[in-house]
Amino acid sequence: MSSRLSSREQILGRLRQGQVALPGVASPEQYRSMAPMYGRSVDELRARFIQEAETAGCRVHVMSRADEAIETILELVGDDRSISAWDMEYIGVDRSGRGAFPERDTVCGSKIRQCAWD
Amino acid sequence: MKVRSSQFIQAAEIAIHDNDLQEAVSFGTNSGFTKRETAMHVDGYEHGEAMRHQAAAIKRHCLKHLPELLEQAEASMSANGVQVLWAIDADEANRHVLDIARRHGVESVVKSKSMVTEEIGLNHALEDAGVDVLETDLGEYILQLGDETPSHIVVPIVHKTKASIRDVLIHEAQMPPTDSTEEMANYARETLRRSFLSADMGVSGGNFIIAETGSLCLVSNEGNARMVTSLPRVHVAIVGIEKVIGTVEDYATLTQVLPRSATGQTMTVYTHMINGPRQTGETDGPEQVYVILVDNGRSGIYGSGYTEALACIRCGACLNGCPVYQVTGGHAYGWVYPGPIGAVITPLLTGLENASPLPHASTLCGMCKQVCPVDIDIPRMLLDLRHDLIAQGHTDTVWDLGMKAWAFGNSAPGRFVFGGQAAAGVTRRLHIDALPGPLSGWTEYRAMPEFAPKSFHQLWQERQDE
User: Quick one: closest CA in A to B44, which residue?
Assistant: First the structure.
């Protein structure tokens, strides 16, 4: 093989040569049925998640609306003054968190640097 | 890393008499093996096996289509803003990293655990260029302090006892004396955490790359991989070409069998899917992300009878289940990848002549295949490598003569009967309890079995006469 070929071309060239010798394999349609990932309903998956989380020592609160979720968070926070948070945008909380949690000193956004060390 | 696999027998002899190593490796492998059994079959044995066979089919499908998937992955990652580089060998991979470091004025690097960076000797290359490198996986950090190499694919310090880890931290990292595991981990955590914030570049490996999305997938338990890939302004991921898979669905299966097989967890504490550098409007994440796709001998395996070795997802389950690894530990194997899978890929990547004892470092009990999450037929490949060794003239004169004598004695009924009677008579009359000369190794650690009073032929003959 010419040394003028790039590494990319050399690697892909060798792989294509080897590919010819490989036997046929099962298609995704065949192997995805071996252990189907979508054999359960959303409710069953949620129940399984709650069960696993509680086994791991978590307490799970299921809320249907964003304002309920914020209310629950405030109940959990109680008198504490600072909150670290991740991905709160999903319940309509902006990165500063000031709107949803106005009486708290610090609310971190979804960013690791802020959460860990600010 | 220098290949020392040709000294496997001598290194194993030393390991067998190292009490600390025996204690540590026995505890680590037994623990890993038991946890895997539980985690793999948490939803029942049949589901666990179905998942294993699904994972095996996925990896074989991806290997079959590897050239196309690599091109697709390159296109997807490039569209995500990742800069993709290719390295034909270890030198080129290291040159790429050094070029990136120079381009971005990098003086310090933090690394998360990566076997391929051990394979290419990245730390030495960076240190030789004057760049500070810090391993941030706790096990790798302890090894770096003690100037050691990993002895297990997943648990790099499986050969070390708690006392030896304590001593390394006290002597090399100025830890105040303590016997508390928690205090040791806390001390290391505090020391490492400062380094994440000051490092210019993070280097990681990659468990998988998903071709359709261009996602780099990592699993970890300590949180260091997230910091390595998020905090420094440059992130470089070094990944073997065989790690590319097709779809998110493929990943969903593989990311279930990997932690179950590796650490006996249904899921690792951290599961990362990295999709490129910081985007406009985001306040953190690396400014630049590079992925280096490393060949380093893999394309030479591809298409051969050993292609399925490339399906390995580096879980280490075959190490934990191997009766040879359990007593020798990993360093005896003499290179980066120990255990049964190491006994296959080390000769393939470094040359059979440099690792000729490794295909024999197996009892062929088959446990490695049984626990492999992608069902790699390691025993079959070890036997094929033994055939290759003989074909290439890597034979032992005494062994050859012994096998020829055995074949001569067993190829005619008269010689077979005479040989059996002669051996039985000699051992009984001379009360031999240890074999002589080149056969002495067999009885060094085993009792010499007594011959039965009557041979099978005699018993059969008597039964026919009745």
Answer: A35
Identify the three-state secondary structure at position B178: coil
State whether B86 and A7 contact (CB < 8 Å).
Answer: yes
Name which of B253, B278, B277, B256 is nearest B266 in CA terms: B256
CB contact, 8 Å: A21 with chain B?
yes
Specify the length of chain B in residues. 466
Integer Cα distance of B284 and B197 in angstroms:
12
B236 has which bridge partners?
B203, B290
pLDDT tens profile A64-118: 888 888 888 888 888 877 777 666 666 776 655 666 666 665 555 444 333 333 3
ipTM confidence: 0.89
- If you measure CA to CA, which chain B residue comes closest to A16? B67
A contacts of B305 (beta carbons < 8 Å): none
Residue B80 dihedral angles phi and psi, to the nearest 5°: -80, -5
Distance (Å, rounded) from C-alpha B46 to C-alpha B39?
13
Please state, as a whole number, how many other Cβ atoms lie within 10 Å of the Cβ of residue A63: 13
Is the Cβ–Cβ distance between A73 and A85 less than 8 Å?
Answer: no
Q: Which of B40, B99, B302 to mutate to test the interface with A (most CBs of A within 10 A)?
A: B302
